[in-house]
What we know:
Elements: E1 5-9, H1 28-36, H2 44-53, E2 59-63, H3 69-84, E3 92-95, H4 99-113, E4 120-123, H5 129-136, E5 142-145, H6 147-156, E6 167-171, H7 173-178, H8 182-191, E7 197-202, H9 207-216, E8 221-225, E9 236-242, H10 248-258, E10 264-267, H11 271-283, E11 288-291, H12 297-308, E12 314-317, E13 332-335, H13 342-349, E14 359-365, H14 370-380, H15 392-395, H16 399-430, H17 437-449
Parallel strand pairs: 1-8, 2-7, 2-8, 3-5, 3-6, 4-5, 6-7, 9-14, 10-12, 10-13, 11-12, 13-14
Helix pairs in contact: 2-3, 3-4, 6-8, 11-16, 11-17, 16-17
Amino acid sequence: MNESITNEVEEDGGILTTQTFASLGLCNTLSQACERLNWKTATKIQAAVLPEALQGRDIIGLAETGSGKTAAFCLPILQGLLEKQVGRRVSAVILTPTRELAFQIHQVVQAVGQAIQATSLCVVGGVDRTSQAIALAKHPHIVIATPGRLLDHLKDTKGFHLRHVQYLVLDEADRMLSMDFEQELHQILDEVPSERQTMLFSATMTSQVQKLQRASLTDPVRLQVSSSKFQTPQHLLQHYLFIPAKYKDVYLTYIVNELAGKSILVFCATCQNVQRLTLMLRNLGFPAVSLHGQMTQNKRLAALQKFASQQRTIMLCTDVASRGLDLPSVDTVFNFDLPGHGKEYIHRVGRTARAGKAGQAISMVTQYDVEVFQRLESLLGTKLPAYPIASEETVLVLLERVSEAQRLATRELKEQLAAQKDGRHRKKRRGEDDDEKGLEGMLEKELKRGYAAAGGKNKRRR
């Protein structure tokens, strides 16, 4: 199952082309649907993928985040469903690593698919399985899912199968594999027909992805929009900020205040730090919201909606938000904790400077991060400039206020923990499951750690 063609499209300024969707072979109905969504011309990855995918070829699509990969695989599927006039059955499966990305893809499929009356369903964890099973019994044309929950339904939901699937998409394949979904992916591959069209999309190509490609694709064409393995968005300004670890919280507060009114995404290594810093910033009067893997699905979606609609201009998050999410209003990405690998840095900073817009990324570097930072610069092939900031004396004027905000955050977390324990006992008496157990454990652990003023040196990752 070797690649027969490798087409590499060089980045020469912006991601859009002058090619219309109709000129790439898309039918009138779907071209008009794209027009209604204000998609006037195709992006480079879409222009590369559509002609091949519409011919039924298996695809390996490699492009930087924010390049339009979602439409690149959704449009060929929808045109195929229209041409083949398939009945009420699951004909396409799109697999993604995170719930948020699955919901986002589902919104795109719904927006374009309504033009041809295509039905779709999002199947992810954190949502009631019974209601999903009822919806699956209606045989939607397209299922967008995370691997674990899809496999649960294949095992436990009576009558649900993938024997009629004609299209399979593996989106953010490298992330799915890095999250240990390899076994689930191979189990799902065993459930779908071998005669199908498969499209694998990712921002980076790893040895694991190459192994998955050999197992799942037949004579694929590889389409790559970039000239560098580790490429950041073209209009992205990148800086580092070298500071003592004990003053990380103070410097974060200073910069957030300097960027007041702008949309800021702050990445932390752990759920604990996200929760702590969110409460601290709120106590300082900043409109902050959090997003991490220990939150319930409803709370995660609510946080995303508030940030995307700019009701909140600061979102603190773990790497659960680093992939695929389309947040076009992000002005600044702030790495409170450096990622452990260059690939995660690429995906984090890819949340800004999307679709040809400008953006900036600022990374905190402490005395504990020098080696990781030097390795990152080596992967990027460039030396990052220092972020222009006032003297340490000026920044530390905020120290007393920040310390007080940390104390209040500690008290609030204790109150949350007490409330969750009380709710847990009530649920046990009623014989219900406790969905907040993970968050409770996280808060207990954080309170025992005692909140170092700087957030400390985090060795444990998300």
